[in-house]
Design a protein that fits this description.
Order of helices and strands: EEEHEHEHEHEHEHHEHHEH
CATH class: Alpha Beta
Bound molecules: 6-hydroxymethylpterin-diphosphate
Helix content: 40-55%
Oligomer: single chain
Strand order of the largest sheet: 8-7-6-5-4-3-10-9
Length: 281
Amino acid sequence: MIWRCRDVTYDLTERVLVMGIVNVTPDSFSDGGRYLAPEAAVARAHLLLTEGADLVDLGAESTRPGSPAVPAAEQWRRLEPVLARLHDERPDAVVSVDTRSAEVAGWALAAGARVVNDVSALGDRAMAGIVGGAGAGLVLMHMRGSPEIMQRDTAYDDVTREVARHLESRMAAAEAAGVARDRVALDPGIGFGKSAEGSLALLARLPELVATGRPVLVGASRKSFLARLTGEDGPPESRLAASLAAAAIAVWQGARILRVHDVADTVRVVRVATAAKRVVR
Ligand code: HH2
């Protein structure tokens, strides 16, 4: 299973990538406001790389339930100094940009990003052309509607089947618009327009998405469905143990990319879970 992201090619047949999160936002659900200053965001990215992150995912727009869209110019104002410094200091580091805006994606790719993480799965019609033209990696995530309205309706007949169908059709749209299939990774969108039961079902039935043949990315880190399961009501940072359990399950079920806040601990989980998987290969 190959994932191509511009000049970087990952063989994910037996390997799982850890994508470390840096939110350059004032309002993200877990780390909002902490890394809004460019120096703080760059320092965070360096730390996550040192801890073993394979990629760093930079986002300038919170997508927590109810959050409004952030204009492209404002996203870029936040991202540009961070990307520029990272590219200068660590040109080898693989940077992903978490944006729904084709304009922002284009600017980020010109500044050295290698992956576009699009939680709207090509909601912006210009996105596929820009990503395809750069030969960049593309993460297509499932979400119903937009973050502003996605939690209004979280009922599905069969959440896993609906998510798999949606992602297959978005992947076909990406291919038709010029993104080669080997650039695409798929993400069920844990917590995006899903109930806690829906998010859990997606994790438990991940092999149905893995069967698409594309690398599956799971973003369960610190999400609220974990607190519903443990019965804890602390801040998102207190969900570490639950997040690591979700990471282990995701790897065992065939996920190839984990998007996480806590990189060092997740790297340990990935080592154990991938070693166990090799035994039953
Ligand atoms: N989750 C969040 C943001 N981006 N991208 C992908 N591909 N998958 C996810 O599950 C995902 C994502 C939400 O988490 P976070 O970035 O920590 O918060 P916020 O959106 O509030 O910035």
